[in-house]
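User: Hello! I'm new to structural biology and keep hearing that structure can be predicted from sequence alone. Could you demonstrate with UPF0056 membrane protein? Please show me the input and the output so I can see what each looks like.

Assistant: Of course. The first part below is the input, the amino acid sequence of UPF0056 membrane protein. The second part is the output, the predicted structure written as tokens.
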Amino acid sequence: MDPIGISAVALSILSPNITKTEINKVAYKTTYTIVISFFVVIIAGEFVLKVFGLDINSLKVMGGLVLLLMALSMISGNIKVKSNDEDKLNEELAIIPIAIPIVFGTGLFSTIIIFKHEADGFIDLASISIAYCLNAIIFYFIFKNSIHIKRYLGQTGQNVITKLMGLIVGALAIQFIISGVVTLAKSYLN
């Protein structure tokens, strides 16, 4: 998750005259949605993979590619989302498109499935869940205060943070791709 970058994207989607109270509601609804989505994926995500006959390593490669594309767009500054329906309420936009797919997209889905697959037991799953929930809380507070952050950082500061996060996401993407390709190659060559 890139809360500062996502906050900038979300502010461009939401009403330009959004109040502090309205953005609090949007931040809460978005965070609630991504936490529910996390638990749905961690509980039923592997089942969905089995139903479609997908290998976790194929998902690693695909998830890595999606993350890589997202990282490249973060680095190049090409993240643009527009809402064509001006009549939508800000709270409706909190779920779609802000929570899903902007915050909780295929890259995050893939990351959760991969981390769950690599978990050794309940303690690892609990650690993943706690780490995700802590990230969601951080996301909530940053998104809730994004109007202030936008004023403080300015456009240049937001661009720098987004590009740095893009580098980190890109490195994670490369790790996923290499790990998945190597494991798939080994399984097909044996």
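User: So the tokens describe the shape?

Assistant: Right, they're a compact way of writing down the 3D structure. Reading them back into a model, for example: The chain has one domain: 3-189.
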